[in-house]
Specification:
about 375 residues; TIM Barrel; eight-stranded parallel beta barrel; 11 helices; globular
């Protein structure tokens, strides 16, 4: 067993202090009500991770408006004050067990499979998404061909992220995480083949990262300096699992370097295996590149459920926090078990009776 001491030491992220450096990754669930309200099952689910010792819990992606942001039916939302009020039950459950909780804010963009507010999808450009909808989340057949989002609608999207962040702060969340990964709207702007715009949001990598930067700036202005803001970044998509940035390390330098100049408190990097080289032509992982070019605290995600793997990426300074998906699902008390030297359960999807995560979806 490698030295896990640093893994279980406190860490400051933004203006808050985590009791350890182990978090629960955001994992898609469809256990809210049809109207997007939190259920008791969700309260128990999140609370159990806090009771199991995780220092940080990041919620599933949560839709932010009553327009085009919803991804799945029965996905929770924070588009209305009434939805936010119900989320407070989750916040209180996590806080009562001594852990911190961030809400992940999501706009689905081109990859919606179920939206009770709209029958069309929007994206940077009208490009047919690759692959097919995820049957695990009740999808079937190809994704819809999205409509190109207008400049006026881009402003609306930024405002929706702002309003959602303000609601999250008002009910006691310790921070928010912008979902800038996996092919959803912010990532679709970042991705060359889904972004074929010829305005200030398209073309160069500097232009394609612009919406992420503007959203961060607008949210920070609205919530103030004492509220933690992060962003999740990936190369792979839910519908294009092997995608890599064409500019390779130069793209990483631009993307992470640009994000590092904002008021972000952290970047959450997710890869299939967090420690593997990001590109065939290089030796550094995306986690290492994020740390080098952003100079921000980095959360690493990607098959780090083995204690020695999680400890190594912290001990060598590549990341500051790790988040677990499959490992957390199999062991809601992963932290306590590792600290006590107890054996860990292996992840068995057959034991996950309620839809919780698509393993292909997130590099857990």
């Amino acid at each position: 067993m490698s030295d896990t001491k640093l893994l279980f030491e406190p860490f400051n992220i933004g203006k808050i202090t985590l009791k350890n450096r182990v978090g629960v990754a955001p994992m898609t669930r469809i256990s809210a009500t049809e109207e997007g309200f939190v259920t008791n099952k969700m309260v128990n689910y999140y609370g159990s991770f806090a009771e199991g010792g995780f220092g940080l819990i990041i919620t599933e992606g949560t839709y932010i408006d009553d327009k085009y942001s919803q991804t799945y039916y029965d996905q929770p939302g924070i588009a209305f004050d009434e939805q936010a009020h119900e989320w407070k039950k989750v916040v209180d459950a996590v806080h009562s067990a001594g852990s911190k909780i961030f809400m992940q804010l999501q706009h689905t963009g081109p990859l919606s499979q179920g939206n009770r507010f709209a029958n069309e999808t929007v994206a940077p450009s009208s490009v047919q998404p690759k692959g097919e909808q995820l049957k695990f989340y009740l999808g079937e057949g190809p994704f819809r061909l999205p409509r190109e989002i207008t400049i006026e609608e881009i402003v609306d999207v930024k405002n929706s992220f702002v309003d959602a962040a303000k609601r999250a702060k008002s009910i006691g969340f310790d921070g928010i995480e912008l979902h800038g990964a996996n092919g959803y709207l912010l990532d679709a702007f970042l991705t060359e083949y889904t972004n074929q715009r010829n305005d200030e949001y398209g073309g160069t990598t500097e232009n394609r990262v612009r919406l992420l930067v503007e959203t961060i700036q607008d949210v920070r202005k609205a919530v103030g300096e004492d509220f933690t803001i992060g962003i999740r970044i990936s190369q792979s998509k839910v519908n294009d699992y092997t995608y890599k940035w064409s500019g390779k390390e130069q793209d990483a330098k631009i993307i992470f370097g640009t994000l590092g100049k904002t008021s972000l408190d952290y970047i959450h990097v997710t890869e299939y295996k967090a420690w593997k080289p990001a590109f065939e032509t290089g030796k550094d992982s995306l986690v290492v590149l994020a740390k080098e070019y952003s100079q921000l605290p980095i959360i690493a995600n990607g098959q780090l459920e083995k204690p020695e793997r999680a400890s190594e990426i912290i001990n060598n300074g590549h990341a500051d926090i790790v988040t677990l998906g499959k490992g957390a699902l199999a062991n809601h008390d992963w932290v306590k078990k590792v600290q006590n030297g107890e054996p860990l359960e292996e992840f068995d999807p057959e034991k996950v009776l309620q839809p919780t995560a698509v393993i292909k979806d997130f590099e857990l």
